Protein backbone atom coordinates (compact mmCIF):
# COMPACT_ATOMS: atom_id res chain seq x y z
CA UNK A 1 0.00 0.00 0.00
CA UNK A 2 1.45 3.33 -1.03
CA UNK A 3 1.44 5.95 1.73
CA UNK A 4 1.10 9.59 0.72
CA UNK A 5 1.55 12.07 3.51
CA UNK A 6 -0.92 14.89 3.90
CA UNK A 7 -0.51 18.16 5.75
CA UNK A 8 -1.61 16.37 8.89
CA UNK A 9 1.01 13.67 8.52
CA UNK A 10 -1.51 10.94 7.67
CA UNK A 11 -2.06 9.15 4.41
CA UNK A 12 -5.49 9.62 2.90
CA UNK A 13 -5.13 6.22 1.29
CA UNK A 14 -4.06 4.63 4.55
CA UNK A 15 -6.93 6.30 6.39
CA UNK A 16 -9.48 5.13 3.83
CA UNK A 17 -8.08 1.61 3.97
CA UNK A 18 -7.97 1.66 7.76
CA UNK A 19 -11.57 2.88 8.01
CA UNK A 20 -12.77 0.21 5.56
CA UNK A 21 -10.81 -2.52 7.35
CA UNK A 22 -12.04 -1.36 10.76
CA UNK A 23 -15.64 -1.34 9.62
CA UNK A 24 -15.35 -4.78 8.03
CA UNK A 25 -13.62 -6.23 11.04
CA UNK A 26 -15.95 -4.70 13.59
CA UNK A 27 -18.98 -5.62 11.51
CA UNK A 28 -17.78 -9.20 11.34
CA UNK A 29 -17.39 -9.30 15.10
CA UNK A 30 -20.82 -7.79 15.62
CA UNK A 31 -22.49 -10.08 13.07
CA UNK A 32 -20.91 -13.02 14.82
CA UNK A 33 -22.21 -11.73 18.15
CA UNK A 34 -25.67 -11.25 16.67
CA UNK A 35 -25.65 -14.78 15.27
CA UNK A 36 -24.76 -16.23 18.65
CA UNK A 37 -27.01 -14.11 20.84
CA UNK A 38 -29.66 -12.90 18.42
CA UNK A 39 -29.77 -9.73 20.55
CA UNK A 40 -28.80 -7.05 18.01
CA UNK A 41 -30.61 -5.93 14.89
CA UNK A 42 -28.63 -5.17 11.70
CA UNK A 43 -29.14 -1.43 12.37
CA UNK A 44 -27.72 -1.81 15.89
CA UNK A 45 -24.81 -3.78 14.50
CA UNK A 46 -23.98 -1.02 12.03
CA UNK A 47 -24.32 1.62 14.72
CA UNK A 48 -22.01 -0.24 17.06
CA UNK A 49 -19.54 -0.83 14.24
CA UNK A 50 -19.39 2.89 13.56
CA UNK A 51 -19.08 3.54 17.30
CA UNK A 52 -15.73 1.72 17.25
CA UNK A 53 -14.41 4.63 15.23
CA UNK A 54 -15.07 6.81 18.28
CA UNK A 55 -17.38 9.53 19.46
CA UNK A 56 -17.99 12.59 17.32
CA UNK A 57 -16.26 14.84 19.84
CA UNK A 58 -14.65 14.90 23.26
CA UNK A 59 -14.51 18.06 25.38
CA UNK A 60 -11.63 18.34 27.86
CA UNK A 61 -9.15 20.80 29.30
CA UNK A 62 -11.45 23.01 31.35
CA UNK A 63 -13.95 23.00 34.17
CA UNK A 64 -17.12 20.99 33.45
CA UNK A 65 -20.18 21.76 35.57
CA UNK A 66 -22.64 18.94 34.97
CA UNK A 67 -25.63 20.15 37.08
CA UNK A 68 -25.93 16.49 38.07
CA UNK A 69 -25.76 16.09 41.85
CA UNK A 70 -24.65 12.47 41.44
CA UNK A 71 -21.60 13.58 39.43
CA UNK A 72 -21.17 17.35 39.87
CA UNK A 73 -18.02 17.70 37.77
CA UNK A 74 -15.98 15.83 35.20
CA UNK A 75 -12.72 16.01 33.31
CA UNK A 76 -14.20 15.18 29.92
CA UNK A 77 -17.46 14.70 28.04
CA UNK A 78 -17.97 12.62 24.90
CA UNK A 79 -20.68 13.42 22.36
CA UNK A 80 -21.96 11.20 19.58
CA UNK A 81 -24.98 11.55 17.34
CA UNK A 82 -26.10 14.69 19.14
CA UNK A 83 -26.19 13.02 22.56
CA UNK A 84 -23.88 12.71 25.54
CA UNK A 85 -22.34 9.23 25.51
CA UNK A 86 -19.78 9.49 28.32
CA UNK A 87 -18.96 11.73 31.28
CA UNK A 88 -15.91 11.10 33.43
CA UNK A 89 -12.14 11.28 33.57
CA UNK A 90 -10.21 12.23 30.48
CA UNK A 91 -8.22 8.98 30.59
CA UNK A 92 -11.35 6.82 30.76
CA UNK A 93 -13.13 8.69 28.00
CA UNK A 94 -10.16 8.77 25.65
CA UNK A 95 -9.69 5.04 26.18
CA UNK A 96 -13.31 4.15 25.47
CA UNK A 97 -14.54 6.93 23.15
CA UNK A 98 -11.64 8.33 21.15
CA UNK A 99 -11.39 7.05 17.61
CA UNK A 100 -10.24 8.05 14.18
CA UNK A 101 -13.16 10.41 13.61
CA UNK A 102 -13.24 12.00 17.05
CA UNK A 103 -12.70 15.75 17.35
CA UNK A 104 -10.71 16.55 20.48
CA UNK A 105 -11.99 19.91 21.69
CA UNK A 106 -9.69 21.59 24.21
CA UNK A 107 -11.62 24.00 26.42
CA UNK A 108 -8.33 25.76 27.17
CA UNK A 109 -9.34 26.56 30.73
CA UNK A 110 -12.85 27.70 29.87
CA UNK A 111 -16.00 26.21 31.47
CA UNK A 112 -18.54 23.84 29.93
CA UNK A 113 -22.14 23.72 31.19
CA UNK A 114 -25.52 22.47 29.97
CA UNK A 115 -27.20 24.81 27.51
CA UNK A 116 -29.52 27.33 29.13
CA UNK A 117 -33.25 26.63 29.03
CA UNK A 118 -35.38 29.77 28.68
CA UNK A 119 -37.99 29.53 31.42
CA UNK A 120 -40.15 32.36 30.11
CA UNK A 121 -39.90 34.98 27.42
CA UNK A 122 -41.59 36.13 24.25
CA UNK A 123 -39.29 34.82 21.54
CA UNK A 124 -41.09 36.27 18.55
CA UNK A 125 -41.57 39.66 20.24
CA UNK A 126 -37.80 39.95 20.66
CA UNK A 127 -37.65 39.89 16.88
CA UNK A 128 -39.96 42.91 16.79
CA UNK A 129 -37.08 44.93 18.16
CA UNK A 130 -35.36 44.55 14.80
CA UNK A 131 -38.16 46.54 13.14
CA UNK A 132 -38.74 49.11 15.88
CA UNK A 133 -36.86 51.93 17.57
CA UNK A 134 -34.77 51.06 20.63
CA UNK A 135 -36.19 53.09 23.53
CA UNK A 136 -34.46 51.17 26.32
CA UNK A 137 -32.82 53.18 29.11
CA UNK A 138 -29.20 52.79 30.14
CA UNK A 139 -27.33 50.43 30.20
CA UNK A 140 -29.23 48.71 27.38
CA UNK A 141 -30.31 51.71 25.33
CA UNK A 142 -30.15 55.50 24.90
CA UNK A 143 -33.45 56.82 26.34
CA UNK A 144 -33.60 58.39 29.80
CA UNK A 145 -35.65 61.50 28.99
CA UNK A 146 -38.74 62.19 26.90
CA UNK A 147 -36.64 64.49 24.70
CA UNK A 148 -34.28 61.57 24.00
CA UNK A 149 -37.26 59.35 23.21
CA UNK A 150 -38.50 61.94 20.72
CA UNK A 151 -35.09 62.23 19.08
CA UNK A 152 -34.65 58.45 18.74
CA UNK A 153 -38.10 58.18 17.16
CA UNK A 154 -37.36 61.02 14.70
CA UNK A 155 -34.13 59.34 13.63
CA UNK A 156 -35.88 56.00 13.33
CA UNK A 157 -38.65 57.44 11.15
CA UNK A 158 -36.09 59.13 8.91
CA UNK A 159 -33.97 55.99 8.36
CA UNK A 160 -36.19 52.93 8.85
CA UNK A 161 -37.18 50.98 5.73
CA UNK A 162 -40.05 49.51 7.78
CA UNK A 163 -41.56 52.95 8.33
CA UNK A 164 -41.08 53.76 4.66
CA UNK A 165 -42.69 50.49 3.55
CA UNK A 166 -45.56 50.33 6.05
CA UNK A 167 -46.26 53.93 7.07
CA UNK A 168 -46.26 53.30 10.82
CA UNK A 169 -43.57 53.89 13.47
CA UNK A 170 -43.17 51.70 16.56
CA UNK A 171 -40.77 52.30 19.43
CA UNK A 172 -40.07 49.56 21.93
CA UNK A 173 -39.18 49.49 25.65
CA UNK A 174 -39.41 53.01 27.04
CA UNK A 175 -39.50 52.95 30.85
CA UNK A 176 -41.24 55.71 32.78
CA UNK A 177 -39.43 54.67 35.96
CA UNK A 178 -36.10 55.49 34.30
CA UNK A 179 -37.19 58.63 32.47
CA UNK A 180 -36.08 61.85 34.12
CA UNK A 181 -39.71 63.02 34.09
CA UNK A 182 -40.86 59.84 35.91
CA UNK A 183 -44.01 59.63 33.80
CA UNK A 184 -45.28 58.28 30.49
CA UNK A 185 -45.05 60.48 27.40
CA UNK A 186 -48.35 61.93 26.16
CA UNK A 187 -50.00 61.89 22.75
CA UNK A 188 -49.02 65.56 22.32
CA UNK A 189 -45.36 64.69 22.89
CA UNK A 190 -45.61 61.98 20.25
CA UNK A 191 -47.46 64.42 17.97
CA UNK A 192 -44.35 66.63 18.22
CA UNK A 193 -42.47 63.82 16.48
CA UNK A 194 -45.06 63.50 13.70
CA UNK A 195 -48.74 64.26 13.24
CA UNK A 196 -48.87 62.50 9.88
CA UNK A 197 -47.45 59.07 10.72
CA UNK A 198 -49.22 56.89 13.33
CA UNK A 199 -46.81 56.32 16.21
CA UNK A 200 -46.92 53.80 19.04
CA UNK A 201 -44.30 53.49 21.77
CA UNK A 202 -44.44 50.36 23.91
CA UNK A 203 -43.62 50.33 27.61
CA UNK A 204 -40.79 48.03 28.71
CA UNK A 205 -43.26 45.87 30.63
CA UNK A 206 -45.16 45.16 27.43
CA UNK A 207 -48.40 45.91 29.30
CA UNK A 208 -48.82 49.56 28.31
CA UNK A 209 -48.32 51.72 25.24
CA UNK A 210 -48.70 55.32 24.12
CA UNK A 211 -50.25 56.42 20.81
CA UNK A 212 -50.07 59.77 19.07
CA UNK A 213 -53.26 61.48 17.87
CA UNK A 214 -53.01 59.95 14.38
CA UNK A 215 -52.76 56.44 15.80
CA UNK A 216 -55.61 57.04 18.26
CA UNK A 217 -57.79 58.21 15.38
CA UNK A 218 -56.85 55.18 13.27
CA UNK A 219 -57.76 52.87 16.15
CA UNK A 220 -61.02 54.82 16.71
CA UNK A 221 -60.16 55.62 20.32
CA UNK A 222 -62.01 58.78 21.31
CA UNK A 223 -63.49 60.54 24.33
CA UNK A 224 -66.53 58.30 23.90
CA UNK A 225 -64.52 55.08 24.08
CA UNK A 226 -65.28 52.89 27.09
CA UNK A 227 -62.58 51.16 29.12
CA UNK A 228 -62.55 47.45 28.27
CA UNK A 229 -62.74 44.88 31.07
CA UNK A 230 -59.26 44.42 32.49
CA UNK A 231 -57.90 47.53 30.76
CA UNK A 232 -57.82 51.31 30.92
CA UNK A 233 -57.68 54.27 28.55
CA UNK A 234 -55.96 57.03 30.49
CA UNK A 235 -57.59 60.43 30.16
CA UNK A 236 -56.63 64.09 30.25
CA UNK A 237 -57.75 66.58 32.92
CA UNK A 238 -61.31 66.60 31.54
CA UNK A 239 -61.47 62.84 32.36
CA UNK A 240 -62.75 62.18 28.84
CA UNK A 241 -60.10 62.89 26.22
CA UNK A 242 -57.55 60.05 25.84
CA UNK A 243 -54.05 61.21 26.77
CA UNK A 244 -52.49 58.49 24.62
CA UNK A 245 -51.64 55.93 27.33
CA UNK A 246 -53.38 52.57 27.05
CA UNK A 247 -53.14 49.93 29.78
CA UNK A 248 -53.51 46.14 29.69
CA UNK A 249 -56.53 44.93 27.66
CA UNK A 250 -57.02 48.41 26.20
CA UNK A 251 -53.46 48.12 24.87
CA UNK A 252 -53.58 44.43 23.96
CA UNK A 253 -56.69 45.08 21.91
CA UNK A 254 -54.86 47.39 19.47
CA UNK A 255 -51.17 46.48 19.61
CA UNK A 256 -51.26 43.89 16.82
CA UNK A 257 -53.35 46.24 14.66
CA UNK A 258 -50.64 48.88 15.04
CA UNK A 259 -47.63 46.64 14.42
CA UNK A 260 -46.60 46.69 10.74
CA UNK A 261 -47.93 43.76 8.71
CA UNK A 262 -44.60 42.32 7.60
CA UNK A 263 -44.12 40.18 4.53
CA UNK A 264 -43.40 36.47 5.00
CA UNK A 265 -39.72 37.08 4.24
CA UNK A 266 -39.54 39.96 6.73
CA UNK A 267 -41.19 37.82 9.39
CA UNK A 268 -38.73 34.97 8.89
CA UNK A 269 -35.76 37.35 9.00
CA UNK A 270 -37.11 38.99 12.16
CA UNK A 271 -37.61 35.67 13.97
CA UNK A 272 -34.18 34.38 12.91
CA UNK A 273 -32.64 37.60 14.23
CA UNK A 274 -34.35 36.89 17.54
CA UNK A 275 -33.01 33.34 17.64
CA UNK A 276 -29.49 34.63 17.04
CA UNK A 277 -29.75 36.82 20.15
CA UNK A 278 -30.74 33.87 22.34
CA UNK A 279 -28.03 31.62 20.89
CA UNK A 280 -25.42 34.30 21.62
CA UNK A 281 -26.56 34.16 25.23
CA UNK A 282 -26.23 30.39 25.53
CA UNK A 283 -29.91 29.40 25.23
CA UNK A 284 -30.53 26.12 23.44
CA UNK A 285 -34.25 25.99 24.31
CA UNK A 286 -36.32 29.15 23.85
CA UNK A 287 -39.88 29.85 24.97
CA UNK A 288 -42.49 31.90 23.13
CA UNK A 289 -45.00 32.73 25.83
CA UNK A 290 -48.48 33.94 24.86
CA UNK A 291 -48.14 33.24 21.14
CA UNK A 292 -50.86 34.85 19.02
CA UNK A 293 -52.71 32.98 16.28
CA UNK A 294 -50.92 34.57 13.31
CA UNK A 295 -47.52 33.78 14.79
CA UNK A 296 -48.63 30.28 15.70
CA UNK A 297 -49.27 29.66 12.03
CA UNK A 298 -45.91 31.10 10.96
CA UNK A 299 -43.74 29.14 13.41
CA UNK A 300 -44.70 25.65 12.16
CA UNK A 301 -44.04 26.78 8.59
CA UNK A 302 -40.57 27.90 9.62
CA UNK A 303 -40.02 24.59 11.40
CA UNK A 304 -41.00 22.61 8.31
CA UNK A 305 -38.55 24.73 6.31
CA UNK A 306 -35.78 23.85 8.78
CA UNK A 307 -35.32 27.44 9.96
CA UNK A 308 -34.57 26.80 13.63
CA UNK A 309 -31.29 25.89 15.29
CA UNK A 310 -32.57 25.98 18.89
CA UNK A 311 -35.67 24.23 20.26
CA UNK A 312 -38.62 26.64 20.21
CA UNK A 313 -41.41 25.84 22.67
CA UNK A 314 -44.65 27.79 22.27
CA UNK A 315 -47.49 28.54 24.69
CA UNK A 316 -50.59 29.93 22.96
CA UNK A 317 -52.64 32.87 24.23
CA UNK A 318 -55.70 30.89 25.36
CA UNK A 319 -57.90 33.92 26.04
CA UNK A 320 -57.36 35.15 22.49
CA UNK A 321 -57.45 31.76 20.75
CA UNK A 322 -59.91 29.74 22.83
CA UNK A 323 -60.30 26.24 21.41
CA UNK A 324 -58.69 26.97 18.04
CA UNK A 325 -58.04 23.89 15.85
CA UNK A 326 -54.28 24.46 15.80
CA UNK A 327 -54.24 23.63 19.52
CA UNK A 328 -55.56 20.20 18.61
CA UNK A 329 -53.05 19.67 15.80
CA UNK A 330 -49.97 17.44 15.90
CA UNK A 331 -47.87 20.49 16.82
CA UNK A 332 -49.37 20.35 20.32
CA UNK A 333 -46.97 17.68 21.51
CA UNK A 334 -44.37 16.67 24.05
CA UNK A 335 -41.98 16.04 21.15
CA UNK A 336 -40.26 18.54 18.89
CA UNK A 337 -40.60 18.40 15.14
CA UNK A 338 -37.77 20.24 13.40
CA UNK A 339 -37.03 22.04 16.68
CA UNK A 340 -40.59 23.30 17.30
CA UNK A 341 -43.60 22.27 19.37
CA UNK A 342 -46.62 23.78 21.08
CA UNK A 343 -46.40 22.77 24.73
CA UNK A 344 -49.51 24.39 26.16
CA UNK A 345 -51.27 27.70 26.72
CA UNK A 346 -50.89 30.87 28.75
CA UNK A 347 -53.33 33.02 30.72
CA UNK A 348 -52.59 36.51 32.07
CA UNK A 349 -54.21 37.30 35.42
CA UNK A 350 -52.93 40.86 35.94
CA UNK A 351 -50.43 43.37 34.68
CA UNK A 352 -47.06 44.90 35.46
CA UNK A 353 -45.91 46.11 38.90
CA UNK A 354 -43.44 48.61 37.46
CA UNK A 355 -46.23 49.84 35.18
CA UNK A 356 -48.55 49.86 38.22
CA UNK A 357 -51.18 47.62 36.68
CA UNK A 358 -50.41 44.46 38.70
CA UNK A 359 -53.19 43.44 41.10
CA UNK A 360 -52.32 43.79 44.80
CA UNK A 361 -54.23 43.24 48.03
CA UNK A 362 -52.68 46.48 49.37
CA UNK A 363 -52.50 49.85 47.58
CA UNK A 364 -49.47 50.96 45.60
CA UNK A 365 -46.94 52.92 47.64
CA UNK A 366 -47.37 55.85 45.25
CA UNK A 367 -50.54 55.53 43.16
CA UNK A 368 -50.57 56.65 39.50
CA UNK A 369 -51.74 60.17 38.74
CA UNK A 370 -55.52 60.48 38.86
CA UNK A 371 -56.05 57.34 40.97
CA UNK A 372 -57.48 57.12 44.47
CA UNK A 373 -55.15 56.40 47.39
CA UNK A 374 -56.72 52.94 47.64
CA UNK A 375 -55.65 52.02 44.09
CA UNK A 376 -54.16 48.50 44.07
CA UNK A 377 -54.26 47.61 40.38
CA UNK A 378 -56.85 45.32 38.85
CA UNK A 379 -57.58 41.84 37.51
CA UNK A 380 -57.39 40.91 33.85
CA UNK A 381 -60.31 38.50 34.24
CA UNK A 382 -63.13 37.75 36.64
CA UNK A 383 -62.93 34.58 38.74
CA UNK A 384 -65.49 32.94 36.45
CA UNK A 385 -63.49 33.76 33.31
CA UNK A 386 -60.22 32.53 34.82
CA UNK A 387 -61.93 29.29 35.82
CA UNK A 388 -63.40 28.89 32.33
CA UNK A 389 -60.00 29.15 30.64
CA UNK A 390 -58.21 26.95 33.15
CA UNK A 391 -60.93 24.32 32.87
CA UNK A 392 -60.62 24.33 29.07
CA UNK A 393 -56.87 23.75 29.37
CA UNK A 394 -57.36 20.95 31.89
CA UNK A 395 -59.99 19.20 29.80
CA UNK A 396 -57.56 19.16 26.88
CA UNK A 397 -54.56 18.25 29.04
CA UNK A 398 -52.73 21.43 28.01
CA UNK A 399 -50.03 22.71 30.33
CA UNK A 400 -50.99 26.16 31.60
CA UNK A 401 -48.62 29.08 32.17
CA UNK A 402 -50.15 31.65 34.51
CA UNK A 403 -48.90 35.25 34.48
CA UNK A 404 -49.56 36.63 37.96
CA UNK A 405 -47.46 39.41 39.49
CA UNK A 406 -49.48 40.87 42.33
CA UNK A 407 -50.47 38.87 45.40
CA UNK A 408 -54.18 39.36 44.65
CA UNK A 409 -53.66 37.83 41.22
CA UNK A 410 -51.79 34.92 42.83
CA UNK A 411 -54.72 34.46 45.23
CA UNK A 412 -57.00 34.21 42.18
CA UNK A 413 -54.67 31.66 40.60
CA UNK A 414 -54.61 29.53 43.75
CA UNK A 415 -58.41 29.67 43.99
CA UNK A 416 -58.75 28.71 40.32
CA UNK A 417 -56.33 25.78 40.44
CA UNK A 418 -57.88 24.50 43.67
CA UNK A 419 -61.30 24.44 42.01
CA UNK A 420 -60.00 22.72 38.87
CA UNK A 421 -58.00 20.09 40.74
CA UNK A 422 -60.99 19.31 42.95
CA UNK A 423 -63.03 18.63 39.80
CA UNK A 424 -60.24 16.81 37.91
CA UNK A 425 -57.62 15.46 40.34
CA UNK A 426 -54.67 13.21 39.76
CA UNK A 427 -52.76 14.08 36.59
CA UNK A 428 -49.48 16.03 36.67
CA UNK A 429 -50.14 18.95 34.34
CA UNK A 430 -47.37 21.00 35.95
CA UNK A 431 -49.04 24.40 35.91
CA UNK A 432 -46.57 27.27 36.13
CA UNK A 433 -46.69 30.58 38.01
CA UNK A 434 -44.99 33.10 35.73
CA UNK A 435 -43.27 36.03 37.50
CA UNK A 436 -44.85 35.80 40.98
CA UNK A 437 -43.08 39.00 41.93
CA UNK A 438 -45.25 39.80 44.92
CA UNK A 439 -45.77 36.21 46.01
CA UNK A 440 -46.48 36.28 49.77
CA UNK A 441 -44.82 33.88 52.18
CA UNK A 442 -48.20 32.41 53.17
CA UNK A 443 -48.97 31.62 49.51
CA UNK A 444 -45.88 29.45 48.95
CA UNK A 445 -47.25 26.35 50.77
CA UNK A 446 -50.38 26.53 48.58
CA UNK A 447 -48.24 26.51 45.43
CA UNK A 448 -46.38 23.48 46.75
CA UNK A 449 -49.59 21.67 47.68
CA UNK A 450 -51.14 22.33 44.27
CA UNK A 451 -47.99 21.44 42.35
CA UNK A 452 -47.69 24.89 40.80
CA UNK A 453 -44.14 25.40 39.56
CA UNK A 454 -42.78 28.92 40.29
CA UNK A 455 -40.89 30.66 37.50
CA UNK A 456 -39.61 33.77 39.23
CA UNK A 457 -38.18 37.06 38.04
CA UNK A 458 -35.20 38.28 40.11
CA UNK A 459 -33.95 40.35 37.14
CA UNK A 460 -36.43 42.95 38.41
CA UNK A 461 -34.12 43.55 41.37
CA UNK A 462 -31.60 45.14 39.02
CA UNK A 463 -33.83 46.87 36.50
CA UNK A 464 -36.61 48.12 38.78
CA UNK A 465 -35.54 47.34 42.35
CA UNK A 466 -35.11 51.00 43.29
CA UNK A 467 -38.46 51.86 41.66
CA UNK A 468 -40.18 49.08 43.61
CA UNK A 469 -38.80 50.45 46.89
CA UNK A 470 -39.45 54.11 46.15
CA UNK A 471 -42.74 54.01 44.25
CA UNK A 472 -44.34 50.62 43.58
CA UNK A 473 -44.58 48.83 46.93
CA UNK A 474 -42.36 50.58 49.46
CA UNK A 475 -39.22 49.27 51.14
CA UNK A 476 -40.77 46.48 53.24
CA UNK A 477 -42.79 44.73 50.54
CA UNK A 478 -40.07 45.19 47.91
CA UNK A 479 -37.55 43.19 49.97
CA UNK A 480 -39.56 40.01 49.30
CA UNK A 481 -39.92 40.51 45.56
CA UNK A 482 -39.36 37.30 43.54
CA UNK A 483 -38.62 35.30 46.72
CA UNK A 484 -36.28 32.62 45.38
CA UNK A 485 -34.75 32.03 48.82
CA UNK A 486 -38.12 31.39 50.47
CA UNK A 487 -39.23 29.01 47.71
CA UNK A 488 -35.94 27.11 47.94
CA UNK A 489 -36.32 26.84 51.72
CA UNK A 490 -39.57 24.94 51.12
CA UNK A 491 -37.62 22.40 49.08
CA UNK A 492 -39.20 23.53 45.82
CA UNK A 493 -37.63 23.67 42.38
CA UNK A 494 -37.99 26.98 40.56
CA UNK A 495 -36.76 28.68 37.41
CA UNK A 496 -35.65 32.22 36.64
CA UNK A 497 -36.32 34.12 33.44
CA UNK A 498 -35.76 37.32 31.48
CA UNK A 499 -39.30 37.85 30.13
CA UNK A 500 -37.58 39.20 27.00
CA UNK A 501 -38.13 41.61 25.38
CA UNK A 502 -39.13 43.19 28.71
CA UNK A 503 -35.49 42.74 29.63
CA UNK A 504 -32.74 41.68 27.26
CA UNK A 505 -32.17 37.87 27.38
CA UNK A 506 -28.74 38.35 28.91
CA UNK A 507 -28.00 35.02 30.59
CA UNK A 508 -25.25 36.45 32.77
CA UNK A 509 -27.52 39.25 34.01
CA UNK A 510 -30.04 36.52 34.81
CA UNK A 511 -27.42 34.64 36.83
CA UNK A 512 -26.07 37.76 38.52
CA UNK A 513 -29.48 39.06 39.59
CA UNK A 514 -30.46 35.80 41.30
CA UNK A 515 -27.14 35.56 43.15
CA UNK A 516 -26.58 39.22 44.04
CA UNK A 517 -29.99 41.00 43.82
CA UNK A 518 -28.26 44.34 43.36
CA UNK A 519 -30.28 47.32 42.11
CA UNK A 520 -29.12 49.97 39.68
CA UNK A 521 -28.09 52.12 42.65
CA UNK A 522 -26.09 49.27 44.23
CA UNK A 523 -28.60 48.43 46.96
CA UNK A 524 -29.02 44.72 47.78
CA UNK A 525 -32.77 44.14 47.59
CA UNK A 526 -33.84 41.16 49.70
CA UNK A 527 -30.47 39.90 50.89
CA UNK A 528 -32.06 36.80 52.41
CA UNK A 529 -33.57 35.87 49.03
CA UNK A 530 -30.18 35.56 47.32
CA UNK A 531 -29.21 32.06 46.18
CA UNK A 532 -25.89 30.32 45.61
CA UNK A 533 -24.47 30.36 42.06
CA UNK A 534 -25.04 26.61 41.65
CA UNK A 535 -28.71 27.02 42.59
CA UNK A 536 -29.07 29.87 40.09
CA UNK A 537 -27.50 27.68 37.39
CA UNK A 538 -29.96 24.90 38.18
CA UNK A 539 -32.75 27.47 37.83
CA UNK A 540 -31.42 28.21 34.31
CA UNK A 541 -30.88 24.61 33.19
CA UNK A 542 -32.25 21.49 34.89
CA UNK A 543 -35.20 23.06 36.70
CA UNK A 544 -36.67 24.91 33.68
CA UNK A 545 -36.17 21.66 31.72
CA UNK A 546 -38.36 20.05 34.40
CA UNK A 547 -40.81 22.94 34.03
CA UNK A 548 -41.17 22.01 30.34
CA UNK A 549 -41.42 18.23 31.05
CA UNK A 550 -37.98 17.85 29.44
CA UNK A 551 -35.80 16.92 32.42
CA UNK A 552 -35.11 13.46 30.97
CA UNK A 553 -33.38 14.90 27.90
CA UNK A 554 -32.06 18.34 28.88
CA UNK A 555 -30.70 20.51 31.67
CA UNK A 556 -27.64 18.53 32.80
CA UNK A 557 -24.59 16.85 31.35
CA UNK A 558 -25.57 13.21 31.81
CA UNK A 559 -25.36 10.01 29.82
CA UNK A 560 -28.07 9.83 27.17
CA UNK A 561 -29.16 13.48 27.33
CA UNK A 562 -28.98 15.84 24.37
CA UNK A 563 -25.59 17.46 23.86
CA UNK A 564 -27.00 20.95 24.43
CA UNK A 565 -24.02 22.81 25.86
CA UNK A 566 -22.56 26.25 26.48
CA UNK A 567 -18.96 27.34 26.98
CA UNK A 568 -18.32 30.29 29.31
CA UNK A 569 -15.20 32.42 29.67
CA UNK A 570 -14.74 31.34 33.31
CA UNK A 571 -16.31 29.18 36.00
CA UNK A 572 -19.32 30.89 37.66
CA UNK A 573 -18.76 28.75 40.76
CA UNK A 574 -15.23 30.12 41.19
CA UNK A 575 -15.30 33.79 40.15
CA UNK A 576 -16.15 36.54 42.60
CA UNK A 577 -19.92 36.93 42.78
CA UNK A 578 -19.70 40.60 41.90
CA UNK A 579 -18.01 39.59 38.62
CA UNK A 580 -20.62 37.09 37.43
CA UNK A 581 -22.08 39.78 35.19
CA UNK A 582 -18.72 39.98 33.36
CA UNK A 583 -18.73 36.34 32.25
CA UNK A 584 -19.04 35.81 28.50
CA UNK A 585 -20.75 33.16 26.41
CA UNK A 586 -18.05 31.94 24.02
CA UNK A 587 -19.88 29.12 22.29
CA UNK A 588 -23.33 27.55 22.18
CA UNK A 589 -23.75 23.94 21.07
CA UNK A 590 -27.07 22.34 20.10
CA UNK A 591 -27.13 18.55 19.90
CA UNK A 592 -23.39 18.45 19.41
CA UNK A 593 -23.25 21.12 16.70
CA UNK A 594 -21.91 24.65 17.31
CA UNK A 595 -24.68 27.17 16.64
CA UNK A 596 -22.91 30.26 17.98
CA UNK A 597 -19.29 31.29 18.44
CA UNK A 598 -18.21 34.61 19.85
CA UNK A 599 -15.99 36.65 17.55
CA UNK A 600 -12.30 36.35 18.35
CA UNK A 601 -10.75 39.42 19.95
Provide structural commentary.
The protein has 601 residues and is α/β, with parallel strands linked by helices. Among the domains are: 53 residues, no CATH class; 116 residues, Diaminopimelate Epimerase, Chain A, domain 1, CATH 3.10.310.70; 162 residues, Metal-dependent hydrolases (TIM Barrel), CATH 3.20.20. 34% of the residues lie in helices and 19% in strands. It is built from 22 helices and 22 strands. The strands form three sheets. Strands 1, 2, 3, 4, 5, 20, 21 and 22 form an eight-stranded mixed beta sheet that branches. Strands 6-13-14-15-16-17-18-19 form an eight-stranded parallel beta sheet. A six-stranded mixed beta sheet has the order 7-8-9-10-12-11, sandwiched between helices. Strand 1 and strand 2 form a beta hairpin. Helix 1 crosses helix 2 and helix 13 packs across helix 14. The longest helix has 26 residues. The protein starts with 11 loop residues before the first helix and ends with a strand. 49% of the residues are buried. The N terminus is likely disordered. GO terms for molecular function: hydrolase activity, acting on carbon-nitrogen (but not peptide) bonds. InterPro entries: Amidohydro_3, Metal-dep_hydrolase_composite, Metal_Hydrolase, YtcJ-like. Keywords: Hydrolase. Pfam families: Amidohydro_3 (PF07969). This is Amidohydrolase.
Amino acid sequence: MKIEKTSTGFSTLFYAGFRKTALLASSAILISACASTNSLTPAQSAENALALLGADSIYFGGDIITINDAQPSAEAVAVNGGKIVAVGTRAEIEKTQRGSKTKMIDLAGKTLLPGFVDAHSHFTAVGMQASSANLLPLPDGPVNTIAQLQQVMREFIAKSPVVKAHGVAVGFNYDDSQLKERRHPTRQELDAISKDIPIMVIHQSGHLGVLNSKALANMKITAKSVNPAGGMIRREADRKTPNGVLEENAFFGIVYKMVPALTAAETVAQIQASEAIYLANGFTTIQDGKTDLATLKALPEMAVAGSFKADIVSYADIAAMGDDPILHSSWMSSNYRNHFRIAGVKLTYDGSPQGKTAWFTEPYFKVPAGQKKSYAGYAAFSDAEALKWYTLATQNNWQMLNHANGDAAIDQLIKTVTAVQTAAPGKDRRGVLIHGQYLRADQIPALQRLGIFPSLYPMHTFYWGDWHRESVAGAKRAEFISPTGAVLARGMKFSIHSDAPVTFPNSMRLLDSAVNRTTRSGYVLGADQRVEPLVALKAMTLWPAYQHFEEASKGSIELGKLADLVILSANPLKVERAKLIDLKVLETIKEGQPVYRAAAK
